[in-house]
Amino acid sequence: MAEPRDLTSILTVLLEEQVDMVLVGALAAVAQGAPITTHDVDVVHARSTSNVTRLIAALGRLNARYRGRPAFAPLPPDPVALAGPGHSLFMTDLGPLDCLGTIEGGLSYDALLPLSIQIDFDGRPLRVLGLETIVRLKRGSTTPKDRLALPILEETLRKSRG
Amino acid sequence: MEHPPLEPANEPVAVDTSLIEEMLRLSPAERLRQNDRMAALAAKLQGAFSAHQKAWQNPET
What we know:
The complex is a heterodimer. Chain A is of the alpha/beta class. Helix content of chain A is 38%, strand content 22%. Chain A has a single domain, classed as Beta Polymerase, domain 2 (2-Layer Sandwich). Chain B has a domain at 34-61. The chains are: A alpha/beta, B mainly alpha. Chain A binds chain B through residues 7-8, 10-11, 23, 27, 30-33, 37-41, 66-69, 71, 75, 77-78, 81, 84-89, 91, 94-96, 100-106, 117-122, 126, 128, 141, 143-146, and chain B through 2-10, 12-19, 21-23, 25, 34, 36-38, 40-42, 44-46, 48-49, 51-52.
């Protein structure tokens, strides 16, 4: 098991458990050079039974519990919820983690896979949603947080294209 | 069985209050550690992505 001090272990644990997922959201944009900050890790996971089983194992190692719950009544990850299209928002011992069944427009893991880029993360393949797709999705968003980040993401995309 | 709190798939939360509550629940030292974790993770991802781009641009190296 990853040491608690391992600074990257949310993703490392997910990859060690061979969870099929695509890293999305602000952290995916940060990976591609966007100068923004974020406090959570967002992934869209494959919702097959076998993958949800692997995801549950990873979440167990991270001591994941649903956010928005009182500390004295934590609720562990629910495989039925994780197999659905909704968003499961967790706090873990290594920080916040959002496991998303789908994102904007109902896009699932299968739909996002061809729009992602595979990088090597500690010797393991990690799929990261491409910046162009992130920008496209954020353009359709109405949330204040996304609207604020959009000009920075668009400029990062423009400059990264040279 | 109690159902977990779920956010709908296609209606992003305008402000993620659960995240704010969790961060406020942390002690100042824990918050600093969390910030350090995210900074380290971001740096590591940027390094990995940069290596990917270099390999893609210079497949011979």
